[in-house]
Amino acid sequence: MKSIDKVEGTFDSRNRDKRGRPSQATIRRLPRYHRYLANLLSEGILRISSSALAERMHVTASQIRQDLSCFGDFGQQGYGYNVKYLYHKIGLLLGAEAGYRAVLVGVGNMGQALLRSRMFERRGVRCVAAFDRDPALVGRIIGDVTVLDGDTLEVFCREERVDLAILTLPADAAREVAPVLAAAGVQGVLNFANTELPRELPLRVENVHLDDALMLLCYEISSTDRQREEQNG
Cα separation of 1 and 4, whole Å? Predict the structure, then answer.
C-alpha cells in the first residue's frame, strides 16, 4: 500500500526565510487551510487534489503545494491529499490540540460577543475566565465563562498557568494590563485594543485592527467607484 505522505509538488525557497524556516506569509496562510479542510470534512470529502483545493480557496495549486511542502510530505501524486490527515497535521502545527488556556480581559460589548461566539473551543483553546473592573459585571457568567474582578488578574494567571490573553478593552487599559500579563507568565496576546503594546515585553502579540480593515475595505470600494467614473468619462 502506497504511503499518502509522498510530496505532491516541489520545494520552493521563496516560501522559506534566510534560515530555511517557513516564511511568515506561509505560516499566516495555515489557519485558512485549516478552515477549508474543516469545511471539506463537514461535507464528507476525505480526499482532494491540490487543484481542487486551489479552486475552492481561489489560489493556485502551486501555492498550496509549495506552502505545505515547508512542513512535511502530505500528498501523493495521483491521489492528492488525505483531508482528515492534513487537517490533523495542520491543527498540530497551529497548536489546536495543545490545550492552551486563555483569559479574556475587558467584558464590554466586544468581549461579551467573543465569549458567546464559542470561538475559543472551536480552535482548541479553553477560555478559563474573563476579567473586568465593573462591579456590575463581576460574578456574571457569559457564554459559560465567569467574570472575575480585574484586580485578581495577575494572581489568577500565574496560579492557573494561563497561556493566552484576549484584550478587548480601551487602549490605555490595554497598555496597563500587558505588563501584568507578562509578569504572570502569559505567553501570547490577541490584542483587539486600538493600540500597540510595548515591544520590550516578553509577549507574542497578534494585533487585530478592525478600524484598519474597515478603512481598507472602504478604500477598495472607493477605488472601484473612481475607476468606473473614469471609464464613463
Answer: 9
The CATH number assigned to the domain holding 77 equals 1.10.10.10
Same domain, 89 and 105: no
Domain check: are 140 and 84 in the same one?
A: no
pLDDT in tens, 180-221: 999 999 999 999 998 999 889 999 999 998 888 899 999 999
User: How far from chain centre, in Å, is Cα 90?
Assistant: 13
pLDDT tens sequence across 77-118: 667 899 999 999 999 999 888 889 999 999 999 999 999 998
Could you tell me whether strands 47-48 and 101-105 are parallel, antiparallel, or unpaired per DSSP bridges?
Answer: unpaired
Task: Report if residue 139 sits inside a domain.
Answer: yes
Is 115 in contact with 179 (CB distance < 8 Å)? no
Is residue 207 located within the same domain as residue 118? Answer: yes
- Asked if the structure places residue 219 within a domain, the reply is no
Under 8 Å between Cβ of 8 and 75: yes
CA distance 228 to 61: 32
Separation CA 199–CA 197 (nearest Å):
6
In a domain, 224, yes or no: no
* CA 218/CA 227 separation, integer angstroms: 14
Flag whether 222 is in a domain.
no
The neighbouring-strand residues paired with 208 are none
What distance lies between CA 92 and its chain's CA centroid?
13
Segments forming the whole domain that contains residue 55: 13-93
